[in-house]
């Protein structure tokens, strides 16, 4: 390289000028881009469009509402085009019915941070007009949520677990738009062979059938989440709840150490120990912290049964080659201590209204109400692969009424139960995960693990 | 700096000259040059540190905007919990084993590469690049990579190889002891590159004539390493020890994705406990107290290292 730029036909001064011009151009271009996005014109929509990436309603509308949501709960998501279309349809309907109002969509990028941020802004009185609220968190917002009863049609049509969480002093606090549940997934061909086609209903039956399968087929009988994550608690809580156990009382005080609760807890942890000791469950479940690992084990022929979430039947379907293969997998109630009890954990999302201004509150309520209508809920849950929270959707929307899996989930939801939305639940869950890990790996007996868990939860609660 | 101001009115001329003089004086003051770095340290280092100490004396929570000062309550609560001491033991094993292994493997690799470069052997650059690649991968990704390698089925990479060699499937992540061992192994794999680079740089500073003199005196390879190399690179070893101890003590990302701290508390180190306390259970006060305790341990470890090395240097 020569040191004299002129010899190359391009002087240093010219190069600097060109560089400066290009830099200025890029800067101006960026600024123009920023201005455009600040003006809400992103997403390829014009400023007059009724639904753009960041706005619902006309840009000229005088009243503005603010909606907090995750990107996958909107029309701008890429993962599920069918669901995006349903969202867009709902948004458009709202916009057409509210020509004088618009909704500014504020996307939150992280679920946990969204919950925390929402709690903080709600406590400071600066909550958005409405927000996507995890059903499990609704009780934390009781002081801030505006009544949503007006948006609810036919209150008796909603599942009891919805009302247990959402209805406070006779008022609905939010619209629970979709749910999920936990179930026993089993291989029908193996259950036909080893239990006359009937999935096990009790722990005894599960261990008996599982042992037989393990010995004769060389695979695990039953697997479940046992690693350090929320599902280890949530999935297995069904066995505790079914026995009549309660984690907290009406005031949110932990009551794990009380008679029947402690007994129920101990029974669940003894069951964990039994699954490992009998060899029905491999010890490696102590490191399963992803539903995908259970699906993987199922599809690799490593287990005959597992405790999973309702959405997994769709993922199994996507991951196998033939209909015959995925139809081998059937769902049933979670085996319990005795055959006459039943429970399943339920989660899902709600739309909560925080707006206090009467005019805006009504507009926000109309938005939330879109998800409460039977037809809309059917459409929305079908596109998203969710379970509806209204019984009639299971009965009247053909996608649900004609699908045998959905009909099982419908039955399971009758005994659905949500986690208590109290701060101490986080400690209970964390302690449950630790205790489960210790029992599954033989570091502690069920009795010792349960006692340590109760002691730690109570110590944390008492500060 | 000169100012061309001969045509300016006298008053303006004086003002400009005075400003120029002040600027020159300012330029000659060390404070001017230290100020940007000092400001950076104050804002991004010292302030968060002071804030963490302040938070540790409160019952601050992520979900409650109100909080009170509770004195040493958070510290008492943590120090009186048996779980904390279990995790301290796990942390001690994890840090001690990781530091010893990282420095040992780092030294072996540095010596091998140094030898390779001196002997003009092929592959020394590619070896350095390969080892360094482990260091630049984020901890979370390393955890996931090792998790895939250690899956406890016949399709897990390591278990597949073991099965092929006639062994049984090993419970790398679900057996408490094996899980800790796996975590140490993954962390050693990640940190060895850093030690290697540090020690290799140290080896470049050792004068060749010292080795020649030792050879003339009849010193064998091990003796040359013991009596020439080690004394010459001691300051680098010291810095390396301090840094890898701090890095390892603060590791939580890799463990979070590899084992989540389980089974039970088998791999839950203090840094992970601090993270879970703050961002899972939302107890910022207690999480800050753990952070302050870890800071004290870091400072203490550094002081101990310094004392040992400075005493040995006879300073």
Counting helices, strands and paired strands, the structural category of chain A is alpha/beta
Largest interface: A-B, 38 and 32 residues
The count of DSSP E runs of length 2 or more, i.e. the number of strands of chain A, is 12
Q: DSSP helix count of chain B?
A: 13
List how many beta strands of chain B DSSP finds: 0
> Poorly predicted ranges of chain A (pLDDT <50, ≥5 residues)?
1-10, 26-45
- Globally, the shape of chain B reads globular
Q: On the 0-100 scale, what is the average pLDDT of chain B?
A: 89
Label the structural class of chain B: mainly alpha
Question: What is the share of helical residues of chain A?
Answer: 40-55%
What's the pLDDT, averaged over the residues of chain A?
Answer: 89
- What kind of sheet is the major sheet of chain B? none
The percentage of residues in β strands of chain B lies in: under 5%
Radius of gyration of chain B: 27 Å
Helix-strand topology string of chain B: HHHHHHHHHHHHH
Count of spatially separate domains of chain A: 2
Which superfamily, in CATH terms, is the homologous superfamily of the largest domain in chain A? Periplasmic binding protein-like II
CATH homologous superfamily assignment of the largest domain in chain B:
MetI-like
Ranges of chain B with pLDDT <50 over ≥5 residues? Answer: none
Overall geometric form of chain A: globular
The oligomeric state of the chains shown is heterodimer
Notes on the structure:
The complex is a heterodimer of chains A (463) and B (315). The N and C termini of chain A lie far apart (71 Å). Chain A folds into 2 domains: 55-180 and 346-416, Periplasmic binding protein-like II (D-Maltodextrin-Binding Protein, domain 2, 3-Layer(aba) Sandwich), CATH 3.40.190; 183-345 and 421-462, Periplasmic binding protein-like II (D-Maltodextrin-Binding Protein, domain 2). Chain A contains 18 helices and 12 strands. Chain A is 47% helix and 14% strand. In chain A, the strands form 2 sheets. In chain A, strands 1, 2, 3, 4, 7, 8, 9, 10, 11 and 12 form a 10-stranded mixed β-sheet that branches. Chain A has a two-stranded antiparallel ribbon with strand order 5-6. Chain A is of the alpha/beta class and 463 residues long. The radius of gyration of chain A is 27 Å and the shape is globular. In chain A, helix 2 links the parallel strand 2 and strand 3 (101-107). Chain B contains 13 helices and no strands. Chain B is globular and about 95 Å long. Chain B has 2 domains: 10-56, no CATH class; 80-313, MetI-like (MetI-like fold, Orthogonal Bundle). Chain B has helices at 10-27, 30-56, 73-79, 82-118, 124-136, 139-149, 157-164, 176-204, 208-216, 221-249, 253-258, 270-279, 284-313. Chain B has 315 residues and is mostly helical. Chain A binds chain B through residues 112, 116, 119-120, 123-124, 140, 226-229, 282-287, 289, 297, 300, 302, 423, 426-427, 430, 433-435, 437-438, 440-441, 443-444, 456, 459-460, 463, and chain B through 59, 61-65, 73, 77, 81, 83, 152-153, 155, 171, 173-176, 179, 259-266, 276, 279-282.
């Amino acid at each position: 390289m020569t040191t004299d730029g002129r010899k190359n036909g391009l002087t240093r001064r010219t190069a600097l000028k060109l560089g400066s011009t290009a830099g200025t151009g890029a800067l101006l271009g960026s600024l123009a881009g920023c201005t455009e996005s600040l003006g809400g014109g992103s997403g390829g929509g014009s400023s007059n469009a009724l639904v753009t990436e960041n706005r619902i309603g006309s840009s000229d509308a005088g009243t503005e509402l603010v909606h907090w949501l995750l990107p996958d709960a909107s029309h701008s998501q890429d993962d599920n085009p069918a669901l995006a279309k349903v969202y867009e349809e709902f948004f458009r309907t709202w916009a057409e019915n509210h020509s004088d109002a618009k909704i500014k969509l504020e996307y939150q990028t992280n679920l946990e941070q969204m919950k925390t941020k929402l709690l903080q802004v709600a406590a400071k009185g600066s909550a958005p007009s409405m927000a996507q609220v995890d059903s499990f968190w609704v009780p934390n917002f009781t002081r801030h949520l505006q009544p949503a009863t007006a948006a609810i049609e036919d209150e008796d049509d909603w599942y009891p677990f919805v009302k247990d969480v959402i209805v406070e002093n006779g008022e609905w606090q939010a619209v629970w738009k979709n749910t999920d549940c936990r179930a026993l997934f089993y291989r029908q061909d193996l259950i036909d062979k080893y239990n006359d086609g009937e999935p096990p209903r009790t722990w005894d039956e599960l261990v008996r059938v599982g042992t037989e399968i393990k010995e004769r087929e060389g695979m695990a009988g039953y697997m479940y989440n046992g690693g350090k994550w929320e599902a280890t608690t949530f999935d297995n809580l069904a066995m505790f709840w079914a026995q009549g156990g309660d984690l907290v009382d009406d005031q949110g005080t932990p009551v794990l150490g009380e008679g029947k609760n402690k007994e129920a807890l101990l029974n669940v942890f003894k069951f964990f120990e039994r699954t490992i000791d009998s060899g029905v469950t491999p010890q490696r479940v102590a490191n399963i912290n992803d539903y995908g690992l259970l699906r993987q084990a199922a599809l690799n022929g490593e287990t005959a049964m597992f405790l999973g979430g309702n959405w997994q039947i769709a993922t199994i379907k996507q991951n196998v080659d033939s209909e015959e293969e995925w139809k081998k997998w059937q769902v049933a109630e979670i085996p319990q201590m005795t055959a006459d009890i039943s429970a399943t954990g339920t989660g899902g999302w709600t739309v909560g209204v925080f707006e206090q201004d009467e005019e805006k509150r009504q507009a926000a309520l109309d938005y939330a109400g879109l998800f409460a209508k039977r037809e809309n809920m059917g459409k929305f849950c079908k596109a998203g692969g969710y379970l509806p929270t209204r019984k009639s959707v299971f009965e009247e929307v053909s996608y649900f009424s004609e699908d045998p899996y959905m009909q099982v989930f419908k039955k399971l939801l009758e005994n659905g139960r949500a986690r208590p939305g109290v701060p101490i639940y986080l400690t209970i869950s964390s302690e449950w995960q630790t205790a489960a890990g210790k029992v599954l790996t033989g570091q502690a007996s069920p009795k010792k693990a349960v006692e340590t868990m109760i002691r730690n939860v109570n110590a944390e609660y008492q500060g | 700096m000169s100012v061309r101001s001969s045509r300016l009115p006298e008053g303006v001329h004086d003002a400009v000259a005075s400003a120029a003089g002040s600027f020159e004086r300012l330029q000659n003051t060390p404070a001017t040059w230290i100020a940007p770095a000092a400001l950076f340290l104050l804002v991004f280092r010292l302030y968060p540190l002071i804030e963490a100490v302040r938070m540790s004396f409160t019952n601050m929570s992520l979900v409650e905007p109100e909080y009170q000062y509770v004195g040493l309550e958070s510290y008492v609560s943590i120090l009186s919990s048996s779980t904390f001491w279990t995790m301290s033991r796990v942390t001690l094993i994890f840090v001690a084993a990781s530091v010893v292994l990282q420095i040992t493997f780092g030294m072996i690799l540095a010596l091998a590469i140094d030898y390779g470069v001196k002997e003009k052997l092929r592959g020394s650059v590619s070896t350095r690049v390969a080892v360094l690649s482990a260091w630049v991968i984020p901890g979370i990704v390393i955890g996931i990579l090792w998790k895939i390698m250690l899956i406890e089925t016949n399709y897990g990479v390591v278990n597949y190889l073991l099965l092929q060699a006639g062994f049984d499937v090993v419970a790398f992540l679900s057996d408490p002891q094996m899980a800790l061992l796996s975590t140490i192994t993954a962390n050693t794999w990640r940190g060895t590159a850093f030690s290697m680079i540090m020690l290799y740089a140290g080896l470049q500073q050792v004068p060749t004539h010292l080795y020649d003199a030792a050879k003339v005196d009849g010193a064998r390879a091990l003796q040359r390493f013991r009596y020439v190399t080690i004394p010459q690179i001691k300051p680098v070893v010291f810095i390396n020890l301090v840094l890898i101890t701090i890095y390892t003590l603060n590791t939580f990302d890799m463990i979070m994705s590899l084992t989540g701290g389980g089974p039970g508390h088998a791999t839950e180190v203090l840094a992970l406990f601090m993270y879970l306390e703050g961002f899972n259970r939302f107890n910022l006060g207690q999480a800050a107290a753990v952070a302050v305790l870890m800071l004290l341990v870091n400072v203490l470890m550094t002081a101990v290292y310094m004392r040992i090395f400075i005493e040995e240097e006879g300073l």
